[in-house]
Amino acid sequence: MRRWLRIATLAPTLLAATAALAAPPPPAATPPMGWNSWDAYGFTIDEADVKANASVLATLKPYGWTYAVVDEGWYMADPFGKTLAERRYLLDANGLLIPVPARFPSAAGGQGFKPLADWLHAQGLKFGLHIVRGIPKQAVDSDLPVAGSPFHAADVADKTDTCPWDDGNYGVRDTPAGQAYYDSMMALFAAWGLDFLKVDCIADHPYKASEIRQISTAIAKTGRPIVLSLSPGPTNLAHADEVRRLSQMWRISNDVWDGWTFPHAKPTDDFPYGIRDIFDRLPGWAPHTGGGHWADADMLPLGTLAPHPGWGEPRQSRLTPDEARTQVTLWAIARSPLILGANLTKLDEATRALITNRDVIAVNQTAEESHPVTDLPAGFANARVWLATGSGRHYLAVFNLDDKPTALTAPWTQLGLTAGPHAAHDLWDGHELAPAPGLEVTLPAHGSVLYEVR
């Protein structure tokens, strides 16, 4: 009898342990790292460009760069069209967007993106797509049937709900018809082999909680581990719990481009964001980042932004070397996803050095907690400090937001660390700081330093 009682007592524990072992890993156990086509190609990305960039991305895979994301426009017959009619979206018989074979030849014959996804997977990479939430207006005008359901597009569409800055779609109703439409979309994407889905016009202006839930539910039904990324920002902190529960990453700002700051015509304007602006956005999200869910500070507009960047003229990134290093440092220690915007086929050595520093990437990928340091000492009015910890290691980043060089001095205790003496290892240039009771560092304008403190 006692033996049976012991077995009965142990059974719940054994079942729980078995369930834990059987549970699949989260889709984004660490901040996703990869490349997105928007900053260099805008609407114009095609299969040849994807493969050319992915071939370079595959050489960066040993450093963690994994996702190749085809951003907006893959379904447009004419990405240079000035109107929706001129752009000519390509849809299947069930009102779902499909790639244009003239731009993605392997999609011919109804194969969709599966051949391209298979090719990317063979390179050791993962495949991502961008969509704008909703159902295409063309599908609604033709009242196309929704695959696997009794519904039609007219049952799905909310014609009173359109994206303020994209005229292609109507919103999706929070009804069984709306869920059926997203179910059919995610089933198609899963059949293609999708690993990452960026959904736009959903995280802010406007925030569409019902469609986030519908898409998240539809992804879960596929059984495929697809990372769900919500755009654009700034996502409101009031939605933190909901976006964490339903997605793996969400944008905390409007689009970030290659400048320290940008002038805005009105105080309420926030497009585009500069690197300086993100210092004010990330702190509030620090408590909500981690455990497979990541506050996304947007892409890294480094290197060559050409031939058709999503904003502005073709160019080399206008960030100074110090500003580019500061962006990577901040994104790393704040544990933001790291998504490259550069044309990788024109990857320069300076950018390559920024994105192949294993020690800096390790901060982003292995830190278990990070946060800004508050109540900084005198002399730090134009400085910011972040701390991160992980695997018994302690990391310290110091940033100069001033437009001129600055010398900073403080005991370790005023930088959020225990009393010294501490030694430090510079993760960017490799030099060692001898044990000392505090930090003394001179930083250039918009510059930064990242240490492992021992």
TrEMBL record:
Q: Which GO terms describe its biological process?
A: carbohydrate metabolic process
For this UniProt record, the keywords arranged alphabetically read as follows: Disulfide bond, Glycosidase, Hydrolase, Signal
Report the catalytic activity: Hydrolysis of terminal, non-reducing alpha-D-galactose residues in alpha-D-galactosides, including galactose oligosaccharides, galactomannans and galactolipids
Q: Which Gene Ontology molecular function entries are recorded, alphabetically?
A: alpha-galactosidase activity
Coiled-coil regions listed: none
Main EC class of this protein?
A: hydrolase
Q: Does the keyword Signal apply?
A: yes
* Gene3D superfamilies associated with the record: Aldolase class I (3.20.20.70), Golgi alpha-mannosidase II (2.60.40.1180)
Enzyme Commission number(s): 3.2.1.22
Superkingdom of source:
Bacteria
Give the Alpha galactosidase C-terminal domain ranges.
383-452
Task: Write out the similarity annotation.
Answer: Belongs to the glycosyl hydrolase 27 family.
Q: What is this protein called?
A: Alpha-galactosidase
Native source organism of the sequence? Nitrospirillum iridis
Q: What is the lineage of its organism?
A: Bacteria, Pseudomonadati, Pseudomonadota, Alphaproteobacteria, Rhodospirillales
